[in-house]
């Protein structure tokens, strides 16, 4: 019934005489310090460090990190820690603890919002909708509300609800726990009654259970919608009858207008007559009969059916015509490909002429190419070597210009550099870069140890911000090309070129992304173990064969025009691979003779194939992190993929001795 506050900043709402408009309660997990700091540095700046008319607290439970939270709170003074275990299934405790704290220590607040630490809250927008709905919120909770939803019975789901914990088939209406707002008046009523409501672990559903008791509304002020919780629970539909269940929620008063709208939506009828009694608590079941349902109009139905038939009659022949022409085009391409003797030469010219950037061909070369395609004859043998070289020039940017260039990274000391780690990043991912610097990149000792690193980026509207960031970190390489996912090949080859020019004392080079966790002890282990093999190979999570993805909706889409072959050569996943500086130097030299391709791991594999080198699969890349077995991680792990900022912090703070420098 009553929570104990292990950390209690009871003075948050007493620091000044300013009236408090909104108290924002943010549920968080102990390991999510980076997320809390990011929120404090961004949208919580509206709170003016808890001295304005908006106040905030972070809600947490007990864990092994309680001492770290106490240290954090000494600086921030914004944490409320309850006497229960911090876990996702205890989110209801966390929310109710916050409500109890608000009624005890923040009675001056007019409204209370609950949200999570992975949310962005636009404070001006929040203030606006509260002002517009201030009266409604005195008896309601507002947010992204659903009228009804079915419990998830899949045990693997995050929102699993067993039949024992919730035997009903549907939830009552509820507002998503990602963010909802109400008045302190409603919060006070919830605190008084929650001891009478059975516990349920999904806090947004649990909070909604109070509204059956108080006959309040869930409102969605962003769309001016009002959803009454009593309706989905009180009515059972049996054919053309609506049964009012006395054991469910009740609404006392005349609700004829709103009920008509509700029945219209639920039964799907256009017009109906109805008898509407007053619903009161304790009355017997009442039968509400739909007296008349308007029959469907035959003419209207016929017109709809005719429209549908005509539409199908037009669209189907068009689709069939496109399909046949597409097949014909593919067949023509194949016959043309087989008919030409010197297929490699002609295919190169086709790619060069149609797709590759920065290529300058004279008119004579175009005429020669057209003649070759139309006649099916080979190019004359006596063609000059200079002309051939002219066609290859521009297949790839020969020299990159470094807009930001930290050329002294590998010259900071006389130590030998074992590994240079190149991390491709996007300009907007500053939080990810900072998180990496604060965690696994600490092994580099601020780029002064035997492991060095750089972040690889391209040009964007955020170039000035990157220059400011680089003034502090001195670890960014910015190239003269647009920063985009399809330019990831440019980014990687720029890094390789930079390594051959400014980091020649590195033995090995690793390429990875900014959503990765790299276990440096494991990386050092595998490079030492495979040192000889990596002199003529590239190592990582390698696939020997893969098919191009032709679905345009895919992130890895490759058109027939950009890659006409049916299979890729073997390649190592671009999430993380390692090789020697010797191989990197060869790739840079041969890249000008290999047609550009936007998927960088495939492009690097094409260079490897042209050089006659090989792929070397190494275990430990793209593994799952085992939080319960540090020894296992140290012996097998190299990289973990798709790691968020909060998960990265959690991995780093896991008490594993091998993790620490």
Automatic annotation (TrEMBL):
GO MF annotation terms: hexosyltransferase activity
Membrane spanning stretches: 302-323
Matching InterPro entries: Glyco_trans_31
Subcellular location: Golgi apparatus membrane
Keywords: Glycoprotein, Glycosyltransferase, Golgi apparatus, Membrane, Signal-anchor, Transferase, Transmembrane, Transmembrane helix
BP GO annotations: protein O-linked glycosylation
Superkingdom of source: Eukaryota
Signal peptide: none
Enzyme Commission (EC) number: 2.4.1.-
An annotated GO cellular component: Golgi membrane
Family affiliation: Belongs to the glycosyltransferase 31 family.
Record protein name field: Beta-1,3-galactosyltransferase 1
Species whose genome carries this gene: Mytilus galloprovincialis (Mediterranean mussel)
Organism lineage: Eukaryota, Metazoa, Spiralia, Lophotrochozoa, Mollusca
